[in-house]
Design a protein that fits this description.
Two copies of one chain form a homodimer. Chain A is an alpha+beta fold. Chain A has two domains: 9-71, Winged helix-like DNA-binding domain superfamily/Winged helix DNA-binding domain (Arc Repressor Mutant, subunit A), CATH 1.10.10.10; 86-223, Chorismate lyase-like (Chorismate lyase). In chain A, 27% of the residues lie in helices and 36% in strands. Chain A has seven helices and eleven strands. Chain A has a six-stranded antiparallel beta sheet. In chain A, strands 1-3-2 form a three-stranded antiparallel beta sheet, covered by helices on one side. In chain A, strand 6 (124-134) and strand 7 form a beta hairpin. In chain A, helix 1 (9-21) packs across helix 3 and helix 2 (34-41) crosses helix 3 (45-57). Chain A is elongated. At the A-B interface, helix 1, strand 4, helix 6, strand 8 and strand 9 of A face helix 1, strand 4, helix 6, strand 8 and strand 9 of B. Strand 8 (176-185) of chain A pairs antiparallel with strand 11 of chain B, so a sheet runs across the interface. The structure holds a DNA duplex.
Amino acid sequence: MIAPARNGWESVRAELLGRIARRIWKPGDSIPNEEDLAYEFGCARATVNRALRDLAAGGYVERRRKAGTRVALTPVRRATLSIPVLRVEVEAGGRSYRFAELSRAIEPAADLAAARLGVAAGAALLRLRTLHFADGAPFAFEDRWLNPAVLPDGAATEFGDLSANEWLVRNMAFSQGDIAFTAANAGAEEAGLLGVAPGAALFVTERTTWRQDQAITAVRLAFAPGYRIHTNL
Amino acid sequence: MIAPARNGWESVRAELLGRIARRIWKPGDSIPNEEDLAYEFGCARATVNRALRDLAAGGYVERRRKAGTRVALTPVRRATLSIPVLRVEVEAGGRSYRFAELSRAIEPAADLAAARLGVAAGAALLRLRTLHFADGAPFAFEDRWLNPAVLPDGAATEFGDLSANEWLVRNMAFSQGDIAFTAANAGAEEAGLLGVAPGAALFVTERTTWRQDQAITAVRLAFAPGYRIHTNL
DNA sequence: TAGTGGTCTAGACCACTAT
DNA sequence: TAGTGGTCTAGACCACTAA
């Protein structure tokens, strides 16, 4: 019982991580099993388990039943990004938010949108194009396809004062989704909307959300230059 | 005791999330406390606690002692990104990996690098510029500043067969770090190195890592066009 | 088949905070 | 001050998997 560690699972985690950082346990090494560690730390196995699960979630160790726990050979860093609604993101920076809906129409699905939503090409989808502003300056251009089949009746015409973005987040809790980040040169139209030179490098996110097996929406957001996502590791 | 839910905390989580999705509990609503839910589900409070902690981590609910648990008003989606070593990322796509070190020299820290690493401007830092290839094509250009003060003696000249990227991940476990994602137009030099037109939109990551209070390295990676990060929500 | 992690339980005490 | 979440415990059984 070397380390009293009377601060609970977080101090157990800290001690274990410290041993990895100090290379007492090197990448690839097995570390003692939960029961032995619990004895060493003078705590219950569940406490060690919690610490080790957290380290595994962070990519520091790999765990397999019967094989035990090993220090990750080539640690995969995991970063958690918070993706707030645009309004919240803008206002969190102390700037004022507003948005302008550029267009709203039922259109036959473009091939790309159809593929992302898993509907037949040409299926009738609601398309919304919206410009978001921070302190009056263009912040992001949103091009969204919505599947009317999964929206409550009337929703397509009534988001109230909310952007489609925020309305969906509040009203269509979803069970699945994916998101991608990439960079793209501004096309002529995007450049004009965002007030930048054609060809400017834009940060782009593409998101698709589903509920059960039904696609709800696919959206592409192009952010004005200078936008960055930041997080801790 | 409505729901037997004999599959453990994950089924409790699923049922709770289902009630949120079906708007039985609406955004802003309080939900029953852990003890009541445990009674309803016929399980221990710890099991409900685990499910609710997971939902809180996912941004679905907000919890405060005494105030209880509420459905998040404007859910903040959280996405977890895996950030592997470049070699692993390339090879995971079935492509061959190699890298070429373009330069390695002690240089006075540029203002930007000095600020990111928290050292005096002009301090002597090791600068490494590396080009990474996937299937022989340029994949990413790396511009890295290293703090020699925190490297083991000789490390600056001996990474073996590993890229600095991978050597650091394996040998310098760090306690803190941050990462940012943005987009930038390729400058003349970058364009030449990556084999793209000047001005092409590049996906850029900037990472700084620390051990205790000492900065280890600051690195900027510019990825060839077409690169994207993808994850589930 | 045996060792290890994954999880559950019933109870307990503590920490925070709304009232 | 009292209600709620946060965590710990000691023990138990289960699930997976390496040998």
